[in-house]
Amino acid sequence: MATIAEAKAIPAQAISWSGALRKSAFAALVTLGLCFPVVAFRTEVDISNRLMILPRWGLVLTFVAIAFFGRLLIALVAERRAGKVRAARRRIAVSDRTGNVLGVLGLSLLAAYPFLSIWLTGMSGSVKWIDNFGIQILIYIMLGWGLNIVVGLAGLLDLGYVAFYAVGAYSTALLTKTFGLSFWMVLPLAGILAAFWGILLGFPVLRLRGDYLAIVTLAFGEIIRLILINWVDVTGGYAGISGIPRPTFFGIPFNASDQGFAAVFGIEFSPLHRTIFLYYIIFGLALVTYWVTIRLRRLPVGRAWEALREDEIACRALGINTVSTKLTAFAIGAMFGGFAGAFFAARQGFISPESFVFMESAVIVAIVVLGGMGSPFGVAIAAIAMIGGTEILRELDWLKMVFGSDFDPTQYRMLLFGLAMVVMMVWKPRGLISTREPSVFLKSRKGVSVEHVSEGHG
Amino acid sequence: MMAKNADPLLTVENITMRFGGLLAVNNLSFVAQRGDITAIIGPNGAGKTTVFNCITGFYKPTSGRIALAFPAPASPEQIQQLTETGQRYAVHEGGGLFLLERMPDFQIASKARVARTFQNIRLFAGMTVLENLVVAQHNPLMRASGFSFLGLFGSGSYKAAERAAVERACHWLEKINLIGRADDPAGDLPYGDQRRLEIARAMCTDPVLLCLDEPAAGLNPRESAELNELLRYIRDEEKTSILLIEHDMSVVMEISDHIVVLEYGTKIADGTPDQIRNDPKVVAAYLGVEDEEVEKAEAEVGI
Asked: Cα separation of B82 and B64, whole Å?
């Protein structure tokens, strides 16, 4: 058996070489064609003000060579990957168990994170680590998990998710400031309002699929943002809303007064208390999101979402009401966006339309796609890498010593972001964790390989 | 062309389906009897799948009426009465009368209990075999989970309902010999197994009428024989009537109780397999006509 396999493998290898070379030659040819007019000649004015044509064939040759060898490399990598697919499938059973262990480890690490960072960096140094890293990353993990319901499970590409984040934030700001409600009373209301907007968006886009759905949801996100900018009487326009009350600990505020948290518990006042408290709020909210997602996946509605992603027509033939199924996906996804928005408003104390631009939606979608659609664990890792990664760029001041004092690492954020995306798409086109876990099993829980799982077409 | 003991389950009356200028189905009427396997046959492009899509609500027929009644047949007067009320259906204890041309597709599956399969298999390829069969039991499970609210907090009644759903799925997996592959992705199954799984999935919705669009397409003779056995089991033991589109005559002639023949959207014959086999119009439609008749026809058009 082994000899047959080897005998087959050798001609396959040879074929792949010639194929790769052919593809590379083609890429080189295309590059040559593109370079010929644009790169090959350069016009320049000489001293006597005459236009000169300078041929630059060396540069063209360099470009062609880059295209040729680059394409060859990609082709060879793709070959190797194809060979590895079977091997990868065998590993799935193992990765399931390691996934569980990693999950528990990650969870306890997140729970202990504020105290770990105090221990490592001291009281004053840790604010940055808890606030900029911990809270910021957890907000995006929560947003990623919320959007994962819509994009990952139901397969409906939503590029306007930030709209629900904005609805949550602005309803928190307006309700607390106008009616004097506390954060804890407004939090569920913000979720309900965002869910309502989710349904409102869902209705007109029910019949849309794929690209068209993406465009309309993108427009929806922009509509919300433009309303926030232009409805100055209510939202304050560009100036935003400030002075949003902070969350309290069962009615005990975090301030230096006699009724404050520090005084009541008899400890020395520190602004860090509030930061740690906020950290645990968003940690709790994110856990609720996770728990609900996991539970819903094993309920009929979650299975219907995934079935909808796989084949909408078959769903209808089985008596599944696709309209209500899609709307619940939109509503529940939006609700978690609303919760995150409510938290965001209460944490910042100030919100403005600046925080709800399309870039935010793009980042959240990128987190879901990078993480592997449908996998909460992958989404969490992607959020840590993307948000933590961009935050850490602010910390790389030593790079100034290498590249000179004008060098600002944060300016290269988008460049690195794009690079990471390209690398991911070449290396793991379906995200970090691309195997799908079945929601019910008879004998053993075997992961479903990505080659079978549909991406959804709206 | 009525059967001897008339117990109509599905009554199709004068349905016409136009796509722009194309007349896909022309004034078609037929009756599918309860407990029968009714086959619709005809050359390619005769409008068979269009008829299926009209019955299962994927198309709205341009005109005509499709009535389905269970557990007992409905009289023409009852059907007429319901038609005049403008209602889509009238349900009563354990059944009802349904005007399928008025109902959306998912209600035809959930309320009128008509299940279907597709010519190009439409399984949920990224879900496991077992999940496919559990998704098919969506509506009863949805009720058991209290529309997700009870299920979210792990209510015992939902767990029991889910166990029952898995058991029902296992019953069908044993029937189609796929119990050993319950936890494999459906997209990993060989073609013949996928065909059988799609039938099992349709049966998991607990239908009174099962519509199969070319179930034997792409099957080898042994698999076709297994399919015949499965369909007979569904008719005799599960008491589900079957409506079938098929090109494989070994399947059609062997298991059908009643055959309807379409050509160019029009019914050209309707009867038992024996009657159909000897019908000159059917023979002409399928095998063409004799040489001298071709000459006669050519002479007419002046070739």
From this structure: 14
Does A441 reside within a domain?
Answer: no
What span, in angstroms and rounded, lies between the C-alpha atoms of A257 and A42? 72
CB atoms within 10 A of CB A254: 21
- The yes-or-no verdict on residue A140 having pLDDT over 70 is yes
Q: Shortest Cα distance from A303 to chain B (angstroms)?
A: 6
> Which residues does B192 contact at the CB level (< 8 Å), separation at least 6?
B218, B219, B220, B223
Query: Are B231 and B252 within 8 A, CB to CB?
Result: no
Domain of B240, in residue numbers: 1-113+207-303
**Is A123 within 8 Å of A354 (Cβ atoms)?**
no
End-of-domain residue from the set B149, B175, B204:
B204
B264 inside 8 A of chain A by CB = no
A interface test, pick of B58, B105, B106 with most A CB neighbours within 10 Å? B106
Cα–Cα distance list, A81 to A146, A428, A455 (Å) = 32, 10, 20
Stretch A257-264: mean pLDDT: 76
Please tell me if residue B159 touches chain A, with a CB cutoff of 8 Å: no
**pLDDT for residue A187:** 92
**B206 Cβ under 8 Å from any chain A Cβ:** no
Distance from CA of B109 to the nearest CA of A (A): 4
CA separation for the pair B57, B99 (Å, rounded)? 10
Model pLDDT for residues B121-171, shown as the tens digit of each residue = 999 988 999 999 999 999 888 888 777 777 677 677 788 888 889 999 999
Please give the pLDDT value at position A3: 41
A313, A318, A438: residue with CB nearest B127? A438
Measured in residues, chain A has a length of 458
Q: Does the structure's ipTM exceed the value 0.95?
A: no
- Of the candidates A114, A118, A123, which has an alpha carbon nearest to the alpha carbon of residue A269? A123
- Average pLDDT, stretch A46-67? 81
**Mean pLDDT computed over A430-454:** 78
Rounded mean pLDDT, A255-279: 80
Residue A44 lies in a domain: yes
- Would residue B103 count as lying in a domain? yes
Domain carrying residue A186: 100-395
Which of left, alpha, beta for A49 (phi over 0: left; psi -120 to 50: alpha)? left
Q: Would B266 be classed as within a structural domain?
A: yes
Domain assignment present for A361 = yes
- Smallest CA-to-CA distance from B168 within B195, B194, B128, B132 is with B132
Q: Provide the pairing of β-strand B8-19 with B22-33.
A: antiparallel
Clarify whether residues A69 and A104 are in a common domain. no
β-bridge pairing B209-213 and B114-116: parallel
Domain assignment present for B118: no
Name which of A138-147, A264-273, A403-412 the model is least confident about.
A403-412
